[in-house]
UniProtKB/TrEMBL annotation:
Pfam annotation, one family: BPD_transp_1
The protein, known as: ABC transporter permease subunit
UniProt keyword annotations, A-Z: Cell membrane, Membrane, Transmembrane, Transmembrane helix, Transport
Annotated transmembrane regions: 25-51, 88-112, 124-144, 185-206, 218-236, 286-303
Domain ABC transmembrane type-1: 84-299
One GO term describing the cellular component: plasma membrane
PROSITE patterns found in the cross-reference section: ABC_TM1
Membrane topology: Multi-pass membrane protein
Principal place of residence: membrane
Organism of derivation: Lacrimispora sp. BS-2
Any one Gene Ontology BP term: transmembrane transport
Family statement: Belongs to the binding-protein-dependent transport system permease family.
C-alpha cells in the first residue's frame, strides 16, 4: 500500500479548535445572540408576575406570590371562552385562506414569461406589506363605507341595499381575513419564489419535450420543489394560531363587532393597559405562548412522521 493511497484521518478538533477555525462566523453571530438575550430571553423574567399580585410600586421582588390564582381567574372569566373561540376561528380562517395565497401567487408569477410585467406585478404585490395597519384599515374602511365607498356605490347601482361590512358581525371576520391576505400575499410569496428559482430549468425543458402541459409541470416539478419550504412555513404558522394580529384587529374592532372580533390580544390590552391588571394579563399571555409552543412541537412531529421535511 502506497502512501498516496492512505487517506488521512480527519483531524479531530475540540470546541476551542472549532472556535479558532471559524472565529469570523462566531463573531457575526454575536449581534443576533445579543438581540435575543436582551429582547427575547431577558423580558421572560417578567413572567413571574403571572404568579403574583403585582403592584408596580413594590416591584417584582416585593409583590405577593399567589400561585395559580390568576390562571383560575382566567378560566372562570365569562369573556375568556368567547375571546378564545374568536381567536381560533379567525386564525383558522387565515390559515386556510391566507397561507395558500402566497403559494398560488408564486405559481402564477413563475408562469409569467414577460420579465418587465412580472417585476411590476411583484412590486405592486409587495407594497401593502410596507403600509401600517392604521393606514390599511383606513383605506379599507373608506373603500367599504356604506355611504361613499365604491363597493356600496356599485351595490346600490345594481339595486341592492348598502352594507356596513366593517360594522356588521357577519361580515367582520371576512374583512379581517381578506385584508390580511391583501397585505401579506406579496411579501409571503418571496420565500416561495426563491425556492422556485433553484429548480433546474432543464427539468421544465425536458418535461415540455415529453409533452407535459403547464399544469402538469406545476404539479410534478414546481410543487415538489416547494414542498420543503411549505412544510417549514406551515410549522411556523401553526405557532401563530393564538398569536392574533393586535394592530389589525384593534383598528377594525368596534363595540358592534366585539362578539365575533374580540381576540386574545385586544382582551389583554383592555384588561392589562386600561384596567391595569398586569398579573392577570401576563397569565393570559403565558397560557397563549405555552399553547403555541405545543402546537409547533405537534406540527413538527406530524411533519417528521409523514414526510422528510421538518424543523428538527
Amino acid at each position: 500500500m502506497t502512501v498516496a493511497k492512505i487517506k488521512a484521518a480527519p483531524k479531530k478538533t475540540g470546541f476551542l479548535g472549532n472556535l479558532s477555525q471559524y472565529k469570523e462566523y462566531y463573531i457575526m453571530l454575536i449581534p443576533g445572540i445579543l438581540f435575543f438575550l436582551v429582547f427575547c430571553y431577558g423580558p421572560m423574567y417578567g413572567l413571574i408576575i403571572a404568579f403574583q399580585d403585582y403592584y408596580p410600586l413594590k416591584g417584582i421582588e416585593g409583590s405577593t406570590f399567589v400561585g395559580l390564582k390568576h390562571f383560575k381567574s382566567l378560566f372562570s372569566n365569562p369573556f375568556f371562552l368567547s375571546v378564545l373561540k374568536n381567536t381560533l376561528i379567525i386564525s383558522l380562517y387565515k390559515l386556510l385562506i391566507c397561507f395558500p395565497a402566497p403559494i398560488f401567487l408564486c405559481l402564477v408569477l413563475n408562469e409569467i414569461k414577460h420579465v418587465k410585467f412580472k417585476k411590476v406585478a411583484q412590486s405592486i404585490s409587495y407594497l401593502p406589506h410596507f403600509v401600517s395597519w392604521v393606514v390599511v384599515s383606513g383605506i379599507i374602511i373608506e373603500f367599504l363605507s356604506p355611504s361613499r365607498g365604491p363597493v356600496n356605490i356599485l351595490l346600490q347601482n345594481l339595486g341592492f341595499d348598502p352594507v356596513f361590512f366593517v360594522g356588521e358581525a357577519r361580515y367582520f371576520r371576512g374583512v379581517l381575513v381578506l385584508s390580511d391576505m391583501w397585505k401579506s400575499i406579496g411579501w409571503g410569496s418571496i420565500v416561495y419564489l426563491a425556492a422556485v428559482t433553484s429548480v433546474d430549468p432543464a427539468l421544465y425543458e425536458a418535461a415540455e419535450m415529453d409533452g407535459a402541459g403547464r399544469i402538469q409541470r406545476i404539479l410534478h416539478i414546481t410543487l415538489p420543489a416547494l414542498a420543503p419550504i411549505v412544510t417549514v412555513m406551515l410549522i411556523m404558522e401553526s405557532g401563530k394560531i393564538l398569536n392574533d394580529s393586535f394592530e389589525q384587529v384593534y383598528n377594525f374592532l368596534s363595540p358592534t363587532t366585539y362578539g365575533v372580533g374580540d381576540v386574545i390580544s385586544t382582551f389583554v390590552y383592555r384588561m392589562g393597559i386600561q384596567n391595569m391588571q398586569y398579573s392577570f394579563t401576563t397569565a393570559v399571555d403565558l397560557f397563549k405562548n405555552i399553547i403555541s409552543f405545543m402546537l409547533v412541537m405537534l406540527t413538527n412531529y406530524i411533519a417528521r412522521r409523514t414526510n422528510d421535511y421538518a424543523l428538527w
